[in-house]
Amino acid sequence: QHHPCRGACAGVPACAVRCGVVAYRDHCDRDARLHSLDLSADLDAVRGYIGALRAYGGGDRPEDVLGGLNEALALTWDAAAAKVLVLISDAPCHGAAYHALPDAHPAGDPHGLTPELLLRHMHERRVHLLFTSIRPETDRMLREFRRIYDDTSTRMTITELHLQQQPPARLALVVTSAVCAARRTSPEARAVRRRSGVHDCVPAHDSGPPDP
């Protein structure tokens, strides 16, 4: 009854939720660098996949964040669906422009990936980005990501959750709010609201993504 996204989702038919997973490490981990599970409605399988993941590897402090984003964009996203990508990161991407840490690849991604390329691709495909911050080492990277990605005119701005300041359980509520915000701007939702005469609403809850 008091769900923060009740108004935001008004006029949108019940949706089918699909989730996927991308686990990334670093370039030195070679074949173990990237692992992924494609988007699926089988949420038990997704939970099982996440539960079987183990954190290991890595050389320097930065990680292959850009490789992880690139792998995520290669999943089978539905063009008409509301899309949210949750980036959980405790280390920045490679490149001296994004941190002040020792870096085996200070010039950036060795495969030529750039935040400009990936974030603009996400923006064009209307993939909303939720960034979960764990350590302050990612702060400079996030500022650069915002400079590229944020566009208040289209309500496409990065939502940030500080996991070091909030209980992990809060992530579920923030993800739900982000999904509902994405639904408001999805092609399907806009078409339904035009047909039904329902106007956009803003979630009245402080945990939701900021709206302009």
Question: What are the main properties of this structure?
Answer:
5 strands, 15% strand, globular, disordered N terminus
Largest sheet, described in full?
3 strands, parallel
The dominant shape is globular
Order of helices and strands: EEHHEHEHEHH
Total helical elements: 6
- Structural class determined from secondary elements: alpha/beta
Tell me what you see in this structure:
- The structure is a single chain.
- Strand 3, helix 3 (115-124) and strand 4 form a beta-alpha-beta unit.
- It is built from six helices and five strands, in the order E-E-H-H-E-H-E-H-E-H-H.
- The strands form two sheets. It has a three-stranded parallel sheet with strand order 3-4-5, sandwiched between helices. The chain has a two-stranded antiparallel ribbon with strand order 1-2.
- It is globular, with a radius of gyration of 18 Å.
- The protein is an alpha/beta fold.
- The relative contact order is 0.17.
- Mean pLDDT is 82; it is low at 1-11 and 198-212.
